[in-house]
Amino acid sequence: MRSTVVKVCAEWAVLVGITLVLITSPGPVEYAVAAVGAAGATAVARRMRRLADVRVRGLDGLLPALARLPLAAVRGAAVLAYATVRPRAVGARTGRIRLREGADPGWAALVLGWSADTCVVEFPRGRPDEVVVHRLGRPAGGPAEVLGRSGGGR
To answer: CA distances (Å), 30 to each of 21, 39, 74, 93, in order?
Structure first.
């Protein structure tokens, strides 16, 4: 119970903080609106997670994957820009990535989809350790290499 209260308060504080950072010069009304809006958003998010039965199961591979995100984002943007100029030269393909043991599909999909040239399109039913991705170009390092089993995406 105590950890739930701490989580809800942390979520609320983050949402209030983001709202207030986005406002140039907040006054008392903006503080009140941010607090009430964040409370509502926190309640809805909590209810949706409960209904969808979302739980983070494992964090294996998260830090190395996060370390590769900036380069993957730049590479993905370059591939996407090149694909707009010469679409046939890039080549698009759909494939499955078997996630390494201990990697949660929820955060893994978020990390995999960070790059502009990769999109997670499906979580196969009955296969919690796989995601289906659509990629432009050839995979070259990035989060898929860290999150895939035996060091690579399939």
So the answer is: 11, 14, 36, 47
